[in-house]
Amino acid sequence: MRRTRFDEWPCPIARTTDLIGDWWTPLVLREAFTGRRRFEEFQEALGIPRAVLAARLDRLVTEGLLERRQYEDHPPRSEYRLTPKGLAFWDVLAAMWRWGDDWLFPEEQPPLQLVDRATGAEIRPCVVDEATGEPLDVRALRVCARPRPD
Amino acid sequence: MRRTRFDEWPCPIARTTDLIGDWWTPLVLREAFTGRRRFEEFQEALGIPRAVLAARLDRLVTEGLLERRQYEDHPPRSEYRLTPKGLAFWDVLAAMWRWGDDWLFPEEQPPLQLVDRATGAEIRPCVVDEATGEPLDVRALRVCARPRPD
Q: The dihedral of CA B49, B50, B51, B53: what is its sign?
């Protein structure tokens, strides 16, 4: 069945959903953040079907989150590196990490943690208002049309 | 085809992906945050197929993000309200909003914005380290096994 597409909806949540609603895609990106670059590395780390991985990598290249570079000519082999747009996506994964860590391990201590490489201190991602540094209060905000520039 | 499930993987990103990788689910939650509660309200706002909406609402109830309450007995009619677990999910949507706003409107001014209800000031969600208030630097962090409690 053909999916309803959200990539031209006016809402940025809808457009982002169109991308990461592809099953496996956030995990392919997670692996890119851990330093994986080659098809075989992604495939082995995730146990993802090869055809699905190829489709996900192709879309992430088309959408500009990954850049494909040929590192060998005979036979031709490519690697995939995060672009600035892909690197910026870390914040979405970090918010997913935090919410999952808080809410999806009901009967166990979550087995993994994010830590600062230098100090070893645990890092807990948190979403704030950029201007104030305060956590978001969803009851205090609303969505509205952006005023047109004069 | 049956999907690979991620809901028992040790990584909180994987578990969250299992939930929001269901096509439409982030948008159903977005509508819940705008105050929609009834099946018909969700259906009209999104133009989502009814069977898909019913399945998505059921899963969100099962997973504990929405609570179903019967508001009429004859005929029986239910509404869906965000639980604390569902309310906490706003941070994930907010991170998706920000990244989409920054990167998915390449040739246009994004038509929508988040504003503070009281002041009308634009709100720009931003992901920081809870302890320091600093933006995350993905190159400075790593994933590791959580130490066992003594």
A: positive
**What is the sign, positive or negative, of the torsion defined by CA atoms of B59, B60, B64, B67?**
negative
CB pairs under 8 A between A and B: 262
Tokens of A93: 């994964």
What is the chain B residue with the closest CA to A123?
A: B129
Answer for the pair B88, A99: CB distance below 8 angstroms, yes or no. yes
Three-point CA angle B89, B51, B104, nearest 5°:
45
Instruction: Identify the domain containing residue B64 by its residue range.
Output: 12-140
Residue A60 lies in a domain: yes
Least CA distance to B28: which residue of chain A? A14
Q: Quick check: A126 and B129 CB within 8 A?
A: yes
Judge contact between B80 and B57, C-beta under 8 A: yes
Amino acid, res. B130: E
Could you tell me which residues come within 8 angstroms of residue A59 by beta carbon, excluding any fewer than 6 positions away? A19, A22, A25
Over residues B118-131, the mean pLDDT reads 95
Give B108 or B144, the one with higher predicted confidence.
B144
Residue B2 confidence (pLDDT) above 90? no
Q: Locate B62 and state its tokens.
A: 């099962």
Number of domains in chain B: 1
Q: Does B43 touch chain A (CB under 8 A)?
A: no
For residue B1, pLDDT beyond 70: no
- Backbone φ and ψ for A118, nearest 5 degrees, come out as -80, -45
CB pair distance less than 8 Å for B145 and A16 = no
B105 close to A (CB below 8 A):
yes
> By CB neighbour count within 10 A (0-12 exposed, 13-18 middle, 19+ buried), where does A105 fall?
middle
ipTM, interface predicted TM-score of the complex: 0.94
Here the CATH number for the domain that contains residue B49 is 1.10.10.10
The stretch B117-146 carries a mean pLDDT of 93
Type of residue at A112: L
The three-class DSSP label of residue B113 is: strand
